[in-house]
TrEMBL record:
Cofactor: Mg(2+)
Organism name: Halopseudomonas formosensis
Entry's family note: Belongs to the HAD-like hydrolase superfamily. CbbY/CbbZ/Gph/YieH family.
Function: Specifically catalyzes the dephosphorylation of 2-phosphoglycolate. Is involved in the dissimilation of the intracellular 2-phosphoglycolate formed during the DNA repair of 3'-phosphoglycolate ends, a major class of DNA lesions induced by oxidative stress.
Enzyme Commission no: 3.1.3.18
Assigned GO CC terms: cytosol
Entry-linked NCBIfam families: HAD-SF-IA-v1, HAD-SF-IA-v3, PGP_bact, PRK13222.1-2
Taxonomic lineage from the root: Bacteria, Pseudomonadati, Pseudomonadota, Gammaproteobacteria, Pseudomonadales
HAMAP family membership: GPH_hydrolase_bact (MF_00495)
Protein's UniProt name: Phosphoglycolate phosphatase
Active site: D19
Catalysed reactions listed for this entry: 2-phosphoglycolate + H2O = glycolate + phosphate
């Protein structure tokens, strides 16, 4: 029996829901390029990949606010300034996802689940307009549900996206799995009452995701099968 089925008493889950950034794809190089473009338009120095990595995970507006503040804390950034910066960020980010890479282990894991008829969803805080194009460009295949950061009125750590998909799939919490890379993913899964696996290679604001208490931590999705 593999690690995935061990989480479900030897059975297959009915529904597997995935985070996107830091879990399925390493998107930070393109996100950082768009952030740095937005900063350059304001005569500001680049933030760079390492800092942007720690700022991803709460959606694009918070990412841009953190970049303007130069820190995780962004209370001092004004609303109008942030909205204008978000427009510039969106324009830069829409054009190019060429540096975004699928993590090793993702393709075989998705293929394995699809062969067995497991329902699949992506639930990300990334704005919805970018999600389907990136899934398609990177050859990640069809997902039964895609929830972006602006699809519903709330985003992760709120469990609404997970609950919405579970209802649509007719999947009970004890037959559903969420896989993510950050605190928001673990919190959303816990609030939805579903098992949560964390990947240790993603983004968690500079902290090890193991500290967030997932049910299982893996270094590749291939380790689950
Ligand atoms: O855009 C973000 O904040 C990242 O989103 P995700 O990790 O929920 O995919
Ligand atoms: Mg993530």
């Amino acid at each position: 029996m593999n690690a995935l089925m061990r989480l479900f008493d030897g059975a297959l889950p009915q529904l597997v829901m995935f985070d996107l950034d830091g879990t399925l794809v390493d998107s930070v190089p393109d996100l950082a390029a768009a952030v740095d473009h937005m900063l350059a338009l304001r005569g500001r120095p680049p933030a760079g990949v390492e800092r942007v990595r720690d700022w991803v995970g709460n959606g694009a507006l918070v990412l841009v606010r953190r970049a303007l503040a130069g820190s995780l804390a962004h209370d001092g950034v004004g609303e109008a300034e942030a909205r204008a910066a978000l427009d510039d960020f969106f324009e830069a980010y829409s054009g190019d996802h060429s540096a975004t890479a699928v993590y090793p282990g993702v393709m075989p894991f998705l293929a394995w689940l699809r062969e067995r008829g497991v329902a699949l969803a992506v639930i990300t805080n990334k704005p919805g307009q970018f999600v389907a194009p990136i899934l398609e460009e990177k050859g990640l295949g069809d997902f039964d549900w895609i929830i972006g950061g602006d699809t519903l009125p709330v985003k992760k750590p709120d469990p609404a996206g997970l609950l919405h998909v579970m209802r649509a799939a007719g999947a009970a919490p004890d037959r559903s799995l969420f896989i993510g890379d950050s605190r928001n993913d673990v919190l959303a899964a816990r609030a939805a009452g579903v098992t949560v696996v964390a990947v240790d290679y993603g983004y968690n604001h500079g902290r090890p995701v193991a500290a967030e208490g997932p049910d299982l931590l893996v270094d590749s999705l291939a380790a689950l099968i």
